[in-house]
Amino acid sequence: MSLIGNEQAKLSATYLNGIAIALAGVGGIGPWVAWVVQPSGQQLLRLGSSSLLCVSLSFVLHLVRITSGGAENVAAPEGMMSATEVYALYGAPLLMAAVGLAVYMFAMRQARQARPPAE
Question: How far are the Cα atoms of 55, 74, 81, 85 from residue 77, in angstroms, in the given order?
Fold first, then answer.
């Protein structure tokens, strides 16, 4: 990789890293701080699921590797997993579990609201 390509890759990686940090701070941590300072009627499920989504996206953005030569030039050092392997092993299952939990909680809430009140 040329010197110019190397610098472009560094700038792109720094840019994505900044977006990932902002996403984690604003979307993942910010709502919880606001909720602790002034608890509102906002549902904790919505707060937790949106925070989990933002933190997960931030984690994925941190793992993205940008090179000017494309994906074939990106190889993890011996004994280390690549970003795609880390995401496939940890990120995707956690994200799927979080979505499944959110759907389950939403369905349970809908079922409770559909029941007539007990007399």
Answer: 26, 10, 8, 13
pLDDT by residue, tens only, the chain of 119 residues? 688 877 877 787 788 778 888 888 888 888 888 777 777 766 777 788 888 888 888 887 777 755 444 444 555 567 777 777 777 777 777 877 887 887 888 777 777 777 776 66
Cα end-to-end span (Å), the chain: 75
Q: Would you mind telling me the total number of residues written for the chain in this entry? A: 119
Read off the DSSP letter of residue 65.
-
Residue type, 69: G
DSSP states along 66-110? --TT-GGG--PPTT---HHHHIIIIIHHHHHHHHHHHHHHHHHHH
The 10 Å Cβ neighbour count of residue 87 is: 19
Domain borders along the chain are: 3-114
The pTM of this model reads 0.50
